Amino acid sequence: MSRNISCFIIGFIILWSFLVRPVFSSEQDNKVSLLENKLKNQLQTISENTDGLVGLAVKDLNTGRTFFLNEKEIFPQASSIKIAILLEVLKQAEEGRLKLEEFIDLKPEEKVGGGPILFYLGNPSLKISVKDLCVLMVVLSDNTATNLLLDKVGMKAINDRLISLGLRQTKLNRKMMDLKAAFAGRENISTPLEMMTLLEKIWKENILGQTYKKEFFSILALPKDSPLQQAVPEGVVVADKPGELEAVRCDSGVVMLKKHPYVICVMTTYLSPQTDGNALIRQIGRLVFQHFDRLERSSEYGRIISEK
Question: Are 268 and 256 in contact (CB under 8 A)?
Answer without folding.
Answer: no
